[in-house]
């Protein structure tokens, strides 16, 4: 409640600008909808409200395009359904439930947040078209079906276009600005984490707090990188730079693990030269995090790379492991320089030459099935009530809560239940505003557009102030969208002035959201242990497939990004220790190490050792899975020994053989340690 009062009574200047822009967008949407005599102009307002979640111009344009696509697809499906099942309500409702379940399930499988709105609009528009025709079955005809579908699609598109226009022209916020800020934050967090890993006094908790923050920041960067493409001629280049920065940051996380774990678990293997280099890296990372300009940061990184080469040249009697670690340190600096240059491309007009794939969403059919089932059950309950009673108010129970079920399926359960409770509070506030403020005033007015806007501006302004604050966003949605449904602004508001109709709609929405609350608790999807097992299994499969992929390192990073975030999130809910995210980071590093090995061997031997490399890769992947189960990892040790024997017959120098042997030693230590940690955790 304190957050609500702060949002309304003490808003920031940005929140006030956001609310003013939102009111203008809805006023414009209502005017255009009324000008074209659309049947239900308030759906244009709802379309505009959905576009207010993120006001940055690129995001608004991208979200608007997705909403329009979803609306058109949903309208087309609604027409198809009515042409075939308009005389069979049960079949029509069953087909619509399956359609909603399909859209909901697919929305759970995508990484891009704005794409979720396309699925939500496809479900909502189809529901609107079908239900508004089925309410009057005796009047149903091909012309009526088409007119209703056209009206619903037009209303939502009008709202989307008006909101996008206002957002772009009035106090425009650019997603590129947010992207630069997030990128700088990500780089600083990464540099701090690199320093923490190399700090002999660094704590386990501080390392994992840093990892969690970096992964969440990378996810936000990934979400915004697609929208920045819509911001002028430099947008596509900035999108590529953001993707490259995200991808290479994951490479850094993989590489720094090697030094941190060596220092914590096998400090006796660190030579004086290696210790001096690691201390230098620790100090330099701290200086880079404090640097203000790109030039200074880039200079520090270049200087560090030169010093690392000097440390390697000055090293005497280094072990195979030590030689390999000097190479890894130089690779780490090279990746860091690429990240810094990518950030420079975000802040300037330089176009990056390199490109990298976006982080790919982890597609788990079980999650999609649970999400789709939840939405289908939500709709089916309302459909059964409507078929049994014929009450038109039940239609609201079949539309709005289902849309919320699609939009919020990505949230963790604790956050989700809190959001739904706040939406319910918002619905209550919306009822009070509609019944005791808006409707009495509008009933006495002349119905002119100007008076309509004057009366509605206040409640919408309050709702938008709440939407502008992340903590009160669910309250804002609960106020703004139901308020539009209760008041039904337009030229003919006769039905809205019937208090029993307004209260019935309010009860239907309240009951629907309450039912959705319990459905989220009952249909929770696969357990965290099952999800974790499937994430590890997919990583195992990627490790096997990795050598056969083009641009394999970037492909693997893109696949592992969302996976790492999910593993970190699930593990925090499952247990206090964080051994599984350590193992996942080990898996990320194993992929990069294996690619270096394949590249080195193929450059020397061509295809002569393909069978041996394939066997070694399978053993590496199996050793990773064995570590997850806390089992013996000797399967990799045996394969590594066999490979080294075969390697001695090829044209490899003694130094190269020592580097490969050092890589195998480090991998073996990592797998064995991970298995021991997970075994001790289980006991």
Automatic annotation (TrEMBL):
InterPro entries referenced in this protein's UniProt entry, alphabetically: PHBA_efflux_AaeB/fusaric-R
Keywords: Cell membrane, Membrane, Transmembrane, Transmembrane helix, Transport
PANTHER family noted in UniProt: MULTIDRUG RESISTANCE PROTEIN MDTO, P-HYDROXYBENZOIC ACID EFFLUX PUMP SUBUNIT-RELATED
UniProt-listed Pfam families: FUSC
Protein name: p-hydroxybenzoic acid efflux pump subunit AaeB
Source organism per UniProt: Marinomonas gallaica
Membrane disposition: Multi-pass membrane protein
GO molecular-function term, one example from the UniProt record: transmembrane transporter activity
GO cellular component annotations of the record: plasma membrane
Source species taxonomy: Bacteria, Pseudomonadati, Pseudomonadota, Gammaproteobacteria, Oceanospirillales
Transmembrane intervals: 25-52, 64-85, 91-110, 115-136, 393-411, 423-443, 449-468, 475-494, 506-524
Location in or out of the cell: Cell membrane
Superkingdom classification of source: Bacteria
């Amino acid at each position: 409640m304190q957050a609500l009062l702060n949002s309304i009574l003490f808003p920031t200047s940005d929140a006030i600008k956001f609310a003013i822009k939102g009111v203008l967008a809805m006023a414009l949407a209502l005017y255009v909808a009324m000008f074209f005599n659309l049947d239900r102009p308030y759906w244009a307002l709802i379309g505009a409200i959905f576009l207010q979640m993120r006001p940055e111009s690129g995001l608004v344009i991208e979200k608007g395009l997705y909403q329009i696509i979803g609306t058109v697809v949903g309208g087309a499906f609604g027409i198809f359904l009515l042409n075939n099942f308009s005389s069979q309500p049960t079949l029509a409702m069953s087909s619509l439930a399956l359609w909603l379940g399909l859209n909901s399930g697919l929305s759970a499988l995508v990484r891009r947040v704005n794409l979720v709105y396309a699925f939500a609009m496809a479900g909502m528009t189809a529901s609107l078209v079908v239900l508004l025709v089925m309410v009057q079955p005796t009047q149903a005809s091909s012309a009526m079906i088409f007119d209703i579908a056209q009206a619903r699609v037009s209303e939502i598109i009008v709202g989307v276009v008006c909101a996008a226009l206002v957002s772009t022209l009035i106090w425009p916020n650019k997603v590129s600005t947010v992207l630069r800020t997030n990128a700088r934050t990500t780089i600083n967090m990464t540099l701090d984490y690199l320093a923490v890993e190399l700090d002999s006094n660094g704590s386990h908790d501080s390392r994992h707090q840093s990892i969690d923050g970096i992964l969440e920041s990378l996810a936000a960067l990934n979400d915004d990188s697609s929208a920045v493409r819509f911001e002028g001629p430099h947008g596509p280049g900035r999108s590529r730079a953001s993707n490259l920065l995200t991808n290479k940051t994951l490479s850094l996380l993989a590489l720094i693990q090697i030094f941190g774990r060596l220092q914590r678990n096998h400090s006796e293997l660190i030579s004086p030269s290696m210790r001096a280099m690691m201390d230098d890296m620790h100090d330099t990372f701290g200086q880079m995090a404090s640097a203000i300009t790109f030039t200074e940061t880039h200079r520090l990184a270049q200087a560090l790379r030169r010093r690392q080469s000097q440390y390697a040249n000055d090293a005497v009697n280094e072990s195979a492991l030590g030689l390999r670690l000097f190479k890894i340190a130089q690779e780490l600096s090279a990746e860091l320089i690429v990240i810094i240059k990518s950030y420079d491309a975000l802040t300037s007009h330089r176009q990056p030459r390199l490109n990298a794939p976006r982080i790919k969403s982890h597609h788990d059919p079980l999650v999609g099935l649970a999400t789709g089932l939840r939405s289908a059950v939500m709709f089916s309950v309302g459909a059964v009530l409507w078929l049994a009673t014929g009450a038109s108010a039940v239609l609201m129970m079949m539309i709005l809560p289902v849309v919320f079920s699609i939009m919020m399926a990505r949230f963790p359960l604790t956050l989700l239940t809190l959001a739904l409770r706040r939406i319910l509070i918002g619905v209550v506030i919306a009822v009070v505003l509609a019944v005791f403020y808006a409707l009495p005033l509008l009933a006495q007015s002349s119905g002119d557009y100007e008076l309509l806007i004057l009366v509605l501006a206040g409640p919408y302004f309050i709702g938008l102030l709440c939407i502008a604050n992340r903590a009160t966003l669910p309250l804002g949605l609960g106020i703004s969208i139901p308020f539009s449904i209760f008041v039904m602004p337009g030229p003919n508001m006769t039905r809205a002035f019937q208090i029993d109709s307004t209260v019935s709609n309010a009860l239907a929405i309240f009951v629907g959201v309450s039912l959705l609350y319990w459905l989220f608790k009952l249909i929770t999807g696969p357990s965290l242990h099952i999800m974790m097992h499937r994430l590890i299994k997919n990583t195992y499969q990627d490790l096997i497939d990795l050598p056969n992929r083009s641009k394999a390192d970037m492909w693997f990073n893109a696949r592992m990004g969302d996976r790492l975030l999910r593993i970190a999130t699930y593990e925090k809910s499952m247990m206090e220790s964080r051994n599984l995210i350590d193992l996942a980071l080990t898996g990320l590093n194993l992929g990069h190490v294996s690619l270096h090995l394949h590249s080195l061997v193929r450059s020397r031997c061509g295809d002569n050792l393909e069978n041996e490399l394939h066997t070694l890769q399978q053993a590496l992947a199996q050793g990773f899975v064995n570590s997850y189960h806390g089992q013996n990892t000797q399967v990799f040790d045996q394969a590594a020994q066999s490979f080294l024997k075969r390697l001695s017959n090829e044209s490899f120098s003694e130094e190269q053989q020592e580097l490969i042997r050092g890589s195998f030693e480090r991998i073996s230590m990592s797998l064995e340690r991970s298995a021991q940690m997970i075994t001790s955790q289980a006991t």
